[in-house]
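Why this split exists: single-chain examples teach little about how molecules sit against one another. For that reason, every record in the complexes split bundles all components of an assembly together and asks for one structure covering all of them. Below is a record exactly as it appears in the raw files.
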Amino acid sequence: MILSIFIGISIALFGFVLQTSIGGINRKIIGRLQKRHGPRWYQEFIDIFKLLSKRSVSHGWIFDFGVIMALGGIIATAMFMPLTSTFLAFENYDNFFIFVYLLAVGMLGMAMSASGSGNPWASIGVMRALTTMLAYEVPFLIVVLTIVNLSGNSSLTEIMLYQQAAGNNIFLIALPLGGIVGFIALMGMLGKKPFETYIAPAEIASGPMVEYGGKQLGMLFILHEITIFIEVSLFVHLFLGGATNIFEFLFKYFIVYTVANLISNVNGRFKIDQVVKFFYKWPLLMAVTQAIIAIYFGWVI
Amino acid sequence: MNSISNLEAVDNIINSTGKVIKKEPISDFQVAYEVNKSDVHQILTSLKLEGWKQLSYLSAVDWPEENKFELVYILLNWDKPVYIQIRAKIDRENPSMNSIIPIFPGAKYYEREAHEFFGIAFPGNPDYKKQLIMEQWDDIPPLRKDFDPRAYSDRKYPSREYPDNFSKKDKENESLEKQAKRRKRARKLRTGGEE
Amino acid sequence: MASIEFLILFLVGAGIIAYLLTKLNTIVGSIFTIFTVMFVFVSLAQYGFGMDIITTVKILPGISFSQSYLGFYFAILIVFIYLMVSFFHPYFIDKYKYKDSYNLLFLLSLAGILGAFYTNNFLNLFFFFEIIIWTTMFLIPQGKSKEAAVSYFGFSLAGSVSLLLGVFVIFNSTGTFNINDSLALLSGNSAVLVFALFLIAAFAKLGAFPLHIWLPITHGNAPDPFSPVLSGALVKLGGFIAVLALIKITPATVMFRAMDIPIGHYLVAILGGLTIVFGTLMAIKEDDAKKLLAYSSMSHGGYILVAFSILNSMAFAGGFYHILAHALASAGAFMAIAAVSRVTGTTKIKELGGMIHKMPITYLAYLIAIISMAGIPPMGGFISKWLIFQAVIDKGMVFVGVAVFFGSVGSFLYVFRPLAALFLGQEFTEYKHVKEAPILMLIPTFVLMGLNIYTGVFPAAFLKVINNIIVELGYTGITYTTYVISGNNGVLNPALISLVFVVGILIAFIIFILLKKSRKVELMDTYTAGNFIHDEHLFHYSTDFYAPLERLYEKQSHWMTTFYRALAEKVKELGKLGKYLFMSKSLSVTLLWIISIIIFLLWGEVL
Amino acid sequence: MISTKYTEKKKFNKQEIDRKWWEVGDYFRRNSLWLLMYCTGCCAIELPPSMTSAYDMERLGMGPMATPRQADILLVSGYLSLKTLRRLIYTYEQMSEPRYVVALGSCPINGGIYHDSHPVINQLDQYIPVDTYVAGCMPNPESVLNGFVDLMEGIKNKTANGWKKYHKNYDWYKKNQFDVLGEVVIDDEFHQ
């Protein structure tokens, strides 16, 4: 048990280091795309450590407690995440719903802390974040319903093994509509450009993060990196057949995150009601169609 | 309808409602009338009825030689391309002009601004005395010509004192290494780190 | 050994004593009520788990009792909620108009509840239901408005009338009023009819779509300490009838082959899904904290319906666990709001702000309750939602899935609103004097907090009771060990999740503690783009919290209310007609009517 | 040769360790400077070219931030009227420490072309400590970047310690602010 917990902690740490490096590399890529030199690839580490070294302000105990709860929840979530189909901390317990709901703990903690700062912009940002969540989560969960129903297990490793088994395609190909919905929902989860309404620095002063500085902001950055690690890994495991070894995982992870980032950089920003309308129009329709086709008719490529 | 006849129409309106002291055509699309202080409200009303519905601006000009303030009302018509300036002179001692809020409610803030910068009173405007732009101003209204901004600035804001040899070149900067270093840094900044 | 008859008679007697005591001194009467309910709870808990309660009847005429795990589960849960709420009475009872009778009615309704869950006769069941409805009907108008009681009574009446009709149909086709015997004997068309009639009763009590209008009106306007009872306990009566209708009667109808569910049950699941969606959407819009929680009760009622209409033991376990988890969570949330309302006198979200700085423990109670309500680990709501999701996914119910997932995510939105706007945010100057709730009110708060966490960490103890019910209903129980629940497509270890969660929090805490200490600043010292602020009310974002989302469905949201309002208008007009005909001012016309009706009746009798 | 002289063992020195940590922190701080652009005047127009592909500020680890809480540098770009100064000081006091101030253009240095204007102050460092001035009217992007590199060197050499100065001479700064602004609290219809 203790060993499992240590493995879990190291997976969380690995996720943080991985996503922070890949985030930095992506910043470089985007810089080159815009004919700029771009920052150093380890710039994100410098940013985070700088924030941790500063002297911050606090708006009361809930402001601090929310941050701790959020980071704790996210670290707990990352500890359950399998890296490959054989390497994970807690065998059998990598249930998909644990990820969805433990991620919500992080969201709730951050929302609580942001509202606790007493700044209306933070509240508006939280409102937008929750509304965005309501938008992307339902189509995504319907696709996952299809996947779990087909593979007969909601454990991530089992889903990976199902896709890796002979005769089965990875779900991105087996469920093409669902795969598209999954990727769009991933963009929403990551808060990438068409759906980054809740950050909106020029509009609502970076939303929930408006009152944070110093160590609280640094912890939120760590939280953000680990959250992205969890979300991208979920996509890799659910739709791309997971990985059999760590290098395959790294490769798939890098591809997914970079593609999402590239798409994000050529997009503008939706208004918040447009986000909801968008997700409840095509992605939901596609997800339901895919579910009906796959579950009731059994048409799976 | 071309603009010449527009100007004539304006002439007719203004002449029928009040006495014009001086008419000053500015361009084909702008015309200024100087009228009596007491006629301003009537003229503005009749112009508003004729379509000059927007009060574009209200301000004042200080004429210390004549000991007068000149109030300027600029009206805009959305259908006919003519700006109209209505000017009226008021006394510089205890300047006061009845508010035009009943005609143009938007004049509220212009009148507050005019009060703040010139000290003109606008009876009829409930809160013309409230501060609008300057926060806690402590001198005579600043746009009056007898106000000296230079003196005010010198009195209120400490200014930097420079040594006598300030403009002379720093001896240290003449050394070759220093200059080379500066050039190198400048090049680095320009090219993005590539040597 | 406790006899159920003795408990009921004890409650009635104690109710009368409580009435007299309350007349003398409200505090003494309320404390007597606490001890009475505690006695009932302790005797039930002592003997009920082992089915050791004596059910023979000696005094009450025409009433017979029997015990079952199903009835006991509901009874112990509701008595527990009553017990928790009774701690609030000493602080609230002085505010009400008819305070003497408050404790009396409270205890009488509890007697009705005990009877309803322990009887084995349909007529008795109806009788006890009426007791509950009539006593609570006089409790509710002591709060804000009488309209609440009227709408509660109207919908309850519709429910009980359809229950009675169902009972008649049962008797007509089977010849017995015994609950278990008659339901087993039912078959054919009468089964379908009873199924439908019972479901109407269940929907009316549960506040499910389309009979949901009364819920927010009643919950929102009921006395503050009675709202937890309404939401946590009384609404669950509908769950009880739903169990009777959905599980005990299985009308022979067409099956959905893909999902292996009878079509009637599938329709109920769809209606349950609609209930979830409507409840969620309306709760997001609602501005009154209590009404918001009422809509959330409606949405959770939908989960219970969905769970019971999927005919497998996994879903049943989910449904029963959800009844437990939601009762605890909803009672906790309502009681926190009641504690706030006691000191501020309002439950409107936009009139409140920054209560956390005054009432931190109440805030924690509300936080834990809503975490459970939103189904986030490590609270009870997560287990039940997980079980229901397992069942829904296993059956491949796509449309119900949309509703269930929507409700689950939507619950984050609406539970967060009171948290953000009422407890957090700017601190209002008019509530500077406010203090934390007194110790007697904190006792149930702490108990509920503990239970909310306990149900989420160690569900085995509760699953044991639930498994008994499932076996009693004729299905195989779900498999679980001390820590692990096994579902159809996955296993869950709530204790492990909690442990890992604690480890995560610890790591975060260590990171936090090691770093430089922060500088404490005022709440008003926030980023305002450099501007100076003085009025905290204008700097508190609470009105129309989800405005962009609400705008998308604001036009569609009121048609149900409009329909019922129009119906009420029509009924009023009918009443006016009757009044005009029968109650006219001249005596002779009335007499003429009475005489003609008597002649008409006699004529029918003669023929 | 081994010395037989008694040498005192190095003791655990908290100050020394703090100083070392501070230097490590300085490395992170100077490589990740986040700007709060307080665009008060015309010099703000020079910032877009210094941020975009021509000069690319991001390669130095710098970038714009939305709020003072997150930012390290308060970038004063251009002249400051009294009304702005009042808000600038409020913003400066909201920033997390260590905080630095960079002033662009000649106006914050000596008033520039507005030296005789009634609402424009002449010298910014009377009211808040300024770590780096970039002279010019307006300074071109190269000099802006040069100014930032100067600030980085200042952080490295511990000369950019305006925020410490502000704490040390707090009364002096407050007196200057009070002389020119009066009561800092504003109370009129727009702020209620």
